[in-house]
Write a sequence for this structure.
């Protein structure tokens, strides 16, 4: 453990070159801006920035993308506090207490607390990243086709369950639709072209980035333009820098939220929003005055913002060690790593052992950047929220078109972006979550190859899929998650526990 | 219902995919195996959703406004991405799109002259900046 912390420290120092820090500053600031603007999410920001950085050296590009990621998840808290509109889905829990604080004339204090919470959450998460990721990568070396098959199924099922708490069937539909969409095009074992009907473009499959730009960019644009205009902000009121005593006296809340956020990040496809909600719920349960949550309790805001930023390094842990994303933005990060020739997965500690600590160091400097920029630029950043959406959205759409086209120079990718945008918009209107869909698209290839390889290795028997120890555990977890999502089963189990 | 139809269609298509047995391929690695499995799952989920919708009372649709704004935004975006891009220089297509979008959604909010000036400035600025930034700085090809 000490060795890992020493490696982390060395990576942080090694990354402190002026050119790297400059990249961190501008990319984090851009991320904060993206996060603040309703309709622009971390996923879209990373997808568009991947287009701009794909000719850069891999380490520079990944540094910029991670800074964008951290900045965007934090930036959304501003909008949640000032407008009661979460800038990104990860900040929904922050608006519960952030907005009431702003209405009490304490918006400055709320923004300061959110900034410090985000910084501390990032720090807890990156330490856990440095400690857990090497162990998880080593554990991942035991995975064979059977385990990877269940990992893909479990990822989609748990993501569908947790991102659609009220209606898990919709979450599962989104996830399995994502897996199905990933089957379009040339498959990876016999090079047979599925569902392509003679089209050369369809034979290449749907590119992940154009699909994500559509589902998170174009679909968001349509949602934003459909809604009535939001109120612009004039004043943030009072002191921004939180009192040290306020934060120090809540060290346990910060630590608990950081750990919970990181754990939520590690679960495939669940991510930052659940990190915030679970931390918020835990803070409320542990509070002596839970009735004040939702009416401007600073502990609630601190927990939510610590939780969502801790989920960022958490979501990167399975990306690095299993090549399975912990959230939608992490899925884009994974795609960007592949584009840049970085091969995340269980072999990472053998092929590139320092990379995990380099990534943790990138999260550290990005977290420092949000602390500095967030506290120093409170007033100037308010100008971003005053830009009318009719000025901003056409520019966003131009970037969506260019971003979809640029990676492969295929006009077909623009059509993919448009198709996924309209499809994503319709799904949103019907309350289907997007994260399982994205995870499904990413995991589709892993599921397909490993299912068929496993079936060949076992001579067509499904037995090893459930009798091998890790496979069996993953299969049991999948089954429990499904049963937990079925209302009558859940209620029957609850009754059973009450009786006993 | 639509989901069930999709699931069944996927199963049918998967069964129709070649097994490649003439090439000595193990039938368990046939290309249609995974899509077939997914088709079965989607059919099951579709039936579950359909059964629930039959049981549940119909919910009144949301009477939210904004469908006109949505149609306008969708129309302008499709005009740009599917109609203008690729048929004329990127800079011109972008300028026209941004001008139309800003003008259409700002209509009636300020004086006509001011609104048109703002739309023109944004259109020219975006077209020039995006083209320059992507082509010259980031060396990215534009459509």
């Amino acid at each position: 453990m000490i060795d890992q912390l020493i490696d982390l420290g060395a990576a942080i120092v090694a990354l402190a070159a002026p050119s790297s820090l400059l990249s961190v500053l501008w990319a984090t600031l851009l991320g904060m801006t993206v996060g603040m603007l309703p309709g622009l999410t971390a996923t879209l920001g990373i997808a568009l920035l991947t287009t701009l950085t794909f000719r850069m050296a891999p380490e520079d590009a990944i540094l910029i993308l991670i800074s964008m990621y951290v900045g965007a998840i934090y930036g959304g808290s501003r909008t949640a506090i000032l407008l009661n509109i979460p800038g990104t889905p990860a900040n929904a829990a922050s608006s519960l207490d952030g907005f009431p604080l702003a209405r009490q004339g304490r918006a400055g204090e709320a923004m300061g607390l959110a900034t410090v919470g985000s910084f501390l959450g990032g720090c807890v998460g990156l330490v856990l990243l440095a400690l857990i990721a090497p162990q998880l990568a080593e554990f991942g070396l035991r995975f064979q086709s059977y385990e990877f098959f269940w990992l893909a199924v479990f990822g989609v099922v748990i993501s569908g369950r947790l991102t659609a708490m009220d209606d898990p069937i919709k979450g599962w539909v989104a996830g399995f639709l994502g897996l199905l969409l990933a089957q379009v095009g040339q498959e990876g074992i016999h090079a047979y072209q599925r569902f392509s009907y003679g089209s050369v473009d369809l034979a290449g499959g749907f590119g992940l980035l154009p699909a994500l730009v559509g589902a998170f960019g174009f679909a968001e644009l349509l949602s934003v333009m459909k809604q009535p205009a939001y109120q612009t902000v004039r004043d943030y009121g009072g002191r921004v820098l939180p009192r040290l005593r306020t934060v120090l006296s809540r060290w346990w809340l910060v630590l608990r939220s950081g750990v919970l956020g990181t754990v939520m990040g590690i679960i495939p496809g669940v991510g930052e929003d659940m990190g915030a909600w679970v931390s918020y719920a835990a803070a409320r349960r542990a509070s002596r005055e839970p009735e004040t949550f939702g009416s401007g309790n600073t502990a609630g805001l601190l927990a939510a913002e610590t939780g969502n930023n801790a989920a960022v390094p958490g979501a990167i842990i399975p990306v690095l060690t299993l090549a399975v994303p912990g959230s939608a933005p992490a899925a884009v990060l994974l795609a960007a790593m592949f584009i840049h020739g970085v091969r995340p997965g269980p072999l990472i500690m053998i092929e590139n052992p320092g990379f995990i600590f380099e990534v943790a160091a990138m999260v550290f400097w990005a977290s420092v950047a949000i602390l500095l920029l967030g506290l120093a630029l409170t007033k100037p950043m308010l100008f971003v929220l005053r830009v009318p959406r009719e000025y901003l959205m056409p520019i966003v759409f131009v970037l969506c078109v260019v971003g979809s086209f640029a990676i492969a120079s295929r006009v077909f990718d623009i059509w993919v972006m448009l198709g996924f945008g309209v499809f994503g918009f319709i799904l949103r209107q019907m309350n289907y979550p997007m994260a399982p869909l994205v995870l499904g698209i990413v995991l589709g290839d892993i599921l397909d190859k490993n299912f068929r390889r496993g079936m060949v290795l076992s001579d067509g028997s499904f037995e090893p899929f459930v009798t091998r120890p890790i496979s069996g555990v993953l299969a049991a977890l999948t089954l429990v998650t499904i049963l937990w999502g079925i209302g009558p089963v859940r209620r029957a189990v609850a009754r059973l526990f009450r009786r006993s | 219902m639509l989901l069930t139809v999709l699931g069944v269609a996927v199963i049918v298509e998967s069964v129709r995919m070649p097994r490649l047995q003439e090439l000595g391929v193990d039938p368990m690695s046939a290309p249609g195996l995974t899509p077939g499995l997914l088709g079965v799952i989607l059919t099951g989920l579709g039936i579950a959703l359909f059964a629930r919708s039959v049981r549940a009372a119909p919910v009144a649709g949301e009477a939210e406004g904004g469908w006109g704004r949505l149609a306008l935004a969708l129309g302008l975006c499709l005009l740009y991405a599917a109609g203008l891009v690729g048929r004329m220089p990127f800079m011109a297509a972008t300028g026209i799109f941004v001008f139309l979008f800003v003008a259409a959604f700002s209509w009636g909010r300020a004086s006509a002259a001011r609104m048109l000036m703002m739309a023109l400035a944004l259109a020219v600025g975006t077209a020039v900046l995006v083209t320059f930034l992507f082509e010259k700085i980031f060396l990215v090809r534009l459509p």
